[in-house]
Design goal:
Blueprint (H helix, E strand, L loop, with lengths): L1 E2 L32 H11 L16 E2 L6 H11 L4 E2 L2 H4 L8 H6 L11 E3 L4 H14 L1 E6 L18 E6 L6 E5 L4 E5 L4 H9 L3 E2 L12 H7 L6 H4 L2 H4 E8 L2 E5 L12 H4 L8 E8 L1 E2 L3 E9 L2 H14 L5 E5 L1 H11 L11 E9 L1 H17 L3 E4 L1 H8 L4 H10 L2 E11 L3 H16 L4 E6 L2 E2 L2 E11 L4 H18 L18 H20 L13
Helix pairs in contact: 2-5, 11-13, 16-17
The structure holds flavin-adenine dinucleotide.
Length: 543
């Protein structure tokens, strides 16, 4: 890796690197090449050609824009966190250059000079974070808090706003289980803990958080809170924001310790202002979370529905009757068909067409069985056909591996990306049809748009779309046009611009329509109060 001014002076990373590969998803050892059969299907049905794909670069061949920080800036930052926790080396900057959206990964393949934070800092405690924010406010340096690095909405773009430089504040050292209250069922976790490490620390005491987004293995407690993440067990355990009992946040204007009691009538709930604040209001350092005992039993059952409308009505009935599944999800006809083509058999059971639904139940043996029986009665009455446990067990087994396929698809010349929204049950089909049409309108009728419901509420549900097309021309421009069309369709058809991926830089242009001009003014007023110089994540969240 060489910067424009330091070509040839390639140094190794000074700081511990993020665990993910810099230009792909996840652990390189788990990368999944596509079979020749799948490549053949992609060519036959989508016209995909590997010749259209930009080849991945070796890290040594990436040209980074040089760091804009002066020696004086670096010395002041070193005084705040310790010299051993600051680096302006390219090898440290490149892995924090952005998140893991498809445009992020495609940008990493560019031979043009790439942007990256001007330095990386690894603070070890709140005092150091406060000191960094003070230095950055004084020296006018933008700050991007960095959790697991899994943002898919440009939340980690190294944007400088009106400042000349930007630093990445990597929070991995905030990795403690601070306290466990087994009477109340609460734990205080450090913001930098990854999902697996948090679960490991709780499991040592027989407890579980139960937040399993697809990015679970790499994303962090602070990142979940900052983005209002939603996990695959949300039917049973709720969204991450539902689990939050309290937060500590370091802002440039001081420290906030929010959430005194399980419920309170002491005015508007300020925790809500910091949940989903995406690093623009402060740095979340600790989160107090509701936890539950590790489940003693699990029951799985998969279902087939003749079509999406029947399946969606069945999920609605389950949720509105509160029968208690932990996992409840439904793939549409296209997603079910593609899963079949990719796996031939799902979990040893031959699934033929229709729409696949997965249910999982947890708790004590009695609770899991009772929840299962109640739910299966509703699903049977709603037109479902049981496929047994196999496909649901298989789904759970592979639930974190799908993102690896995207890297192989990009290499093969396919464009592959996801987006999500949510709306009320009454408008769900209309929204799904409109978003699908908008995406295919831009990407051509040969593109594939797959959809599933994975988060349900008594009054509505989320829709998660996966898009597959042949790369044509510049795939970033190609995707930008499709994404814009989908966002317009979401806004025009009653959806939210994001159900769980957050706003970042990518959804920011739609925020005024999401919350209105007065809503934007309120967010700006809060920002002025907690971050008067505006150093935290400029260009994200707030229009
Ligand atoms: C393959 C894949 C699958 C995904 N699946 C899901 C899913 O199932 N459900 C879901 O909800 N999301 C999902 N996401 C999106 C992403 O994982 C979530 O947004 C996650 O919550 C981000 O956590 P993180 O620790 O990686 O944060 P980062 O990506 O590092 O940061 C996200 C944003 O929060 C800010 N931030 C991070 N930590 C802090 C902090 N401590 N204080 C203040 N601001 C902070 C950052 O500046 C940034 O703006 C997925 C992403 C990918 C790539």
């Amino acid at each position: 890796m060489a910067s424009e001014t330091q070509a040839g002076q390639v140094g190794g990373a000074v700081l511990p690197l993020p665990p993910m590969k810099w230009d792909a998803w996840g652990d390189p050892a788990l990368a999944k090449p596509l079979s020749e059969d799948i490549k053949g299907l992609l060519t036959a049905f989508l016209g995909v050609s590997a010749e259209a794909a930009a080849a991945p670069l070796a890290a040594e061949d990436v040209v980074l824009r040089p760091s804009a920080l002066s020696p004086e800036d670096l010395a002041a930052l070193a005084a705040a966190v310790g010299a051993e926790h600051v680096s302006a080396a390219d090898a440290d900057r490149l892995p924090r250059a952005g998140g893991k959206s498809t445009p992020d990964l495609l940008r990493r393949r560019s031979r043009e000079p790439q942007d990256a934070p001007d330095a990386v800092l690894l603070p070890g405690n709140e005092e150091e974070i406060a000191a960094v924010l003070a230095v950055c406010a004084e020296r006018r340096i933008a700050v991007v808090p960095f959790g697991g690095g899994t943002s898919v909405v440009g939340g980690l773009d190294p944007l400088r706003g009106s400042f000349a430089s930007v630093v990445s504040l990597d929070l991995r050292r905030l990795d403690a289980l601070h306290s466990l209250d087994e009477v109340s069922g609460e734990a205080v976790l450090g913001a930098g803990l990854t999902g697996p490490r948090a679960e490991e620390l709780l499991a040592e005491h027989g407890w579980e958080l139960g937040h399993f987004p697809q990015s679970f293995r790499f994303a962090t407690i602070g990142g979940f809170a900052a983005t209002r993440s939603s996990g695959q067990d949300s039917a049973g355990h709720g969204r991450f924001d539902d689990m939050v009992r309290g937060l500590r946040v370091v802002t440039p204007a001081g420290v906030l310790d929010l959430g005194r009691a399980p419920a309170s009538a002491a005015g508007p709930d300020l925790r809500e202002l910091f949940l989903g604040s995406e690093g623009a209001f402060g740095v979340i350092t600790r989160v107090r979370l509701r936890i539950h005992p590790l489940p003693a039993a699990k029951v799985h059952e998969a279902w087939s529905f003749p079509d999406f409308a029947t399946g969606a009505a069945a999920l609605r009935a389950v949720e509105q009757q509160g029968t208690g599944p932990t996992v409840l999800r439904l793939s549409d006809e296209s997603e079910t068909a593609v899963n079949l083509a990719m796996t031939e058999q799902i979990g040893g059971e031959q699934v033929t067409g229709g729409c696949l639904a997965v249910t999982v139940f947890e708790g004590t043996k009695e609770q899991a069985e009772a929840r299962h029986e109640r739910t299966r009665a509703v699903l049977l009455a709603a037109g479902g056909t049981s496929l047994g446990a196999g496909p649901a067990v298989a789904w759970e087994h592979g639930r974190f591996s799908a993102p690896y396929l995207r890297d192989a698809l990009l290499d093969a010349g396919a464009l592959c990306e996801t987006l999500e929204t949510a709306t009320d049950w009454a408008g769900l089909e209309r929204l799904k049809t409109a978003v699908t049409a908008a995406l295919q309108g831009e990407l051509g009728s040969g593109s594939l748009v797959l959809c599933h419901i994975s988060h349900v509420y008594p009054t509505g549900a989320s829709l998660y779309f996966t898009v597959l097309a042949a790369q044509q021309g510049d795939p970033i421009t190609q995707w930008d046009a499709a994404k814009r069309a989908a966002c317009e369709a979401i806004m025009a058809n009653g959806g939210t611009i994001t159900h769980h991926h957050a706003v970042g830089a990518d959804h920011r242009p739609w925020m005024d329509r999401e919350i209105g001009d007065l809503g934007v003014k309120i967010l700006r007023a809060v920002k002025d109060a907690v971050d008067p110089v505006g150093i935290l994540n400029p260009g994200k969240l707030i229009p």
